[in-house]
Design a protein that fits this description.
This protein is an alpha+beta fold and about 230 residues long. The protein has one domain. Helices cover about 15% and strands about 30% of the residues. It has 4 helices and 13 strands. The strands form 3 sheets. Strands 3, 4, 5, 6, 7, 8, 9, 12 and 13 form a 9-stranded antiparallel β-sheet that branches.
Length: about 230
C-alpha cells in the first residue's frame, strides 16, 4: 500500500472517531453535503481513478473512485453527496494508528469509533450501525430508522467504463449504493461499519467498509419523485 493511501486510512479511522452528529458525518476528508469538486479535491493525495455514472433519476448520479487499496462510491443529488460507500483493504503487519503489538481486531477497530461517537444502535458481529434523528440526536433502537420497505443498501454493481483510458474497469466489489426507499420522517443519518472477517471479537480484520447515508436528504429527494 502506498504511503498516501495508508495515511488516508489512518485519517479515516481517526477523523471518523470524532463526534458525528446530525448530517455532518465525515469520513477522513469526505463528508455528506460535499460537491463533486470538493470530493475530488479531498482525494487528490491518493490520486484515484474516477468514473461518473448516471442513475434512473435526472438529478441523481454516482461517482466511483478507485486506488490500489481503496474504492469509493458516492451518491450525488443535485451536486451534493447524499451517501457514500468506502472499502479499505488493511495491509498486513503493524498498523501505525495502533499501539505496538496490538492487532486490528473487530473489537479494537470498533472501539476506535465508538469511544468518541455514541452507543451503536445495533451490533451484529462485524456489523455496527449508528443512527440519528433529523435533529442529530442519537437513536438507540435500529428499528426506528429502517426503510419502510426493502433493504437500506444494494450492491453497487458494475461501473461503466469509458474504454478510452486503457485502464482496466474499476472494481466495485464491496461497494454499495442506497436503495431509493422512504424512511420515517424523523430519521437523520445512518452509519454502517462492516469489518471482515468477524467470526469473533478477536478476529483480525483485513477489510473495512463504511456506508454513510443522509436519510433526511434522501427522504426529501424521494418526496419530489413520488411516482418514479
Amino acid at each position: 500500500m502506498k504511503k498516501c493511501q495508508l495515511q488516508l486510512l489512518i485519517a479515516s479511522l481517526i477523523v471518523f472517531a470524532q463526534p458525528v452528529l446530525g448530517q455532518n458525518v465525515k469520513l477522513a476528508n469526505i463528508a455528506l453535503g460535499m460537491s463533486e469538486t470538493e470530493v475530488k479535491t479531498a482525494l487528490t493525495s491518493s490520486a484515484p481513478f474516477y468514473i461518473n455514472q448516471a442513475s434512473d433519476y435526472p438529478d441523481m448520479n454516482y461517482l466511483v473512485a478507485e486506488t490500489d487499496a481503496e474504492s469509493y462510491a458516492f451518491t450525488i443529488i443535485k451536486n451534493k453527496v447524499a451517501a457514500f460507500s468506502v472499502v479499505h483493504i488493511l495491509p498486513p503487519g503493524q498498523l501505525p494508528f495502533l499501539p505496538p503489538g496490538q492487532r486490528p481486531t473487530v473489537s479494537i477497530l470498533r472501539s476506535l469509533i465508538t469511544k468518541q461517537t455514541w452507543t451503536p444502535s445495533e451490533i451484529n458481529k462485524g456489523d455496527t450501525l449508528w443512527l440519528s434523528d433529523d435533529s442529530g440526536a442519537p437513536l438507540s433502537n435500529a428499528l426506528q430508522c429502517r426503510p419502510k420497505s426493502g433493504e437500506a443498501w444494494l450492491p453497487f454493481g458494475p461501473a461503466a467504463s469509458d474504454n478510452l483510458s486503457g485502464r482496466p474497469a474499476i472494481s466495485t466489489e464491496g461497494l454499495m449504493k442506497p436503495s431509493t426507499n422512504l424512511y420515517a420522517a424523523n430519521c437523520g443519518t445512518s452509519i454502517h461499519l462492516n469489518l471482515t472477517p468477524a467470526e469473533s471479537e478477536d478476529s483480525v480484520v483485513t477489510s473495512v467498509r463504511y456506508q454513510v447515508l443522509d436519510i433526511k436528504a434522501m427522504n426529501a429527494f424521494l418526496a419530489k419523485h413520488p411516482q418514479h
